Amino acid sequence: MSDQTDAANTIVKKYALFSLGGGFIPAPKLDLLLIATSQALMLRELAKEYDVPFSKNLGKSAVSSLLGGYLPTRLGLGGLGSLVKAVPVVGTYIGFATVPAFATATTYAIGKVFIQHFESGGTFLDFDPEKVRAHFAAEMDKSSSKADAA
């Protein structure tokens, strides 16, 4: 692995941990905002590492396209977990059981997909979520397996 790849993987791990922390925020919707912010900051830092021009709007669009096509029922788990936090007492526990793991897995998978994309010479302008959907799903499964084992 190159030094650049090592640095990029370190960036992904850092922001996956930030997303994990965001998942523990008890306020519904605020947790999702913090997770999305963490993912955007990760993409900005990865783009800088690979000398790829960063656009906040293109980054958000790329992530939305990637997540939007990934099994909506699984994605619903993260959003539903966030909203469930609004239910007194029980909701907080359910949200704490689902949102942090989901946030970590999605951030990690997004980061790994963009590392591969940037290393192959890609930019935000030529990012095609359809072409990387299988890779994203594999990274989600890998990340989820690691979380289950821990």
Structure overview:
The protein has 150 residues and is mostly helical. The chain has one domain. Helix content is 79%, strand content 0%. It has six helices and no strands. It has helices at 3-23, 30-49, 56-68, 72-84, 90-119, 129-149. α1 (3-23) runs antiparallel to α2 (30-49) and α1 runs antiparallel to α5. The radius of gyration is 15 Å and the shape is globular. The two termini are 25 Å apart. Residues 75-79 have low confidence and may be disordered.
Features:
single chain, 150 residues, mainly alpha, 6 helices, 79% helix, globular
Layout of helices and strands, plus pairs?
Layout (H helix, E strand, L loop, with lengths): L2 H21 L6 H20 L6 H13 L3 H13 L5 H30 L9 H21 L1
Q: Helix and strand string, N-terminal first?
A: HHHHHH
User: Helix amount, in percent?
Assistant: over 70%
* Tally of discrete structural domains: 1
**Could you list the spans in which at least 5 consecutive residues all have pLDDT below 50?**
75-79
Q: Which structural class do you get from the secondary structure elements?
A: mainly alpha
Number of helices, where a helix is a run of at least 4 consecutive DSSP H or I residues: 6
Indicate the proportion of strand residues: under 5%
The Cα radius of gyration reads: 15 Å
The biggest beta sheet, please?
Answer: none
Q: Judging from the principal axes of the Cα atoms, what is the shape?
A: globular
Number of strands: 0
Measured between the Cα atoms of the first and last residue, the distance is 25 Å
Mean pLDDT: 82
Task: Describe the structure concisely for a colleague.
The protein has 150 residues and is mostly helical. The chain has 6 helices and no strands.
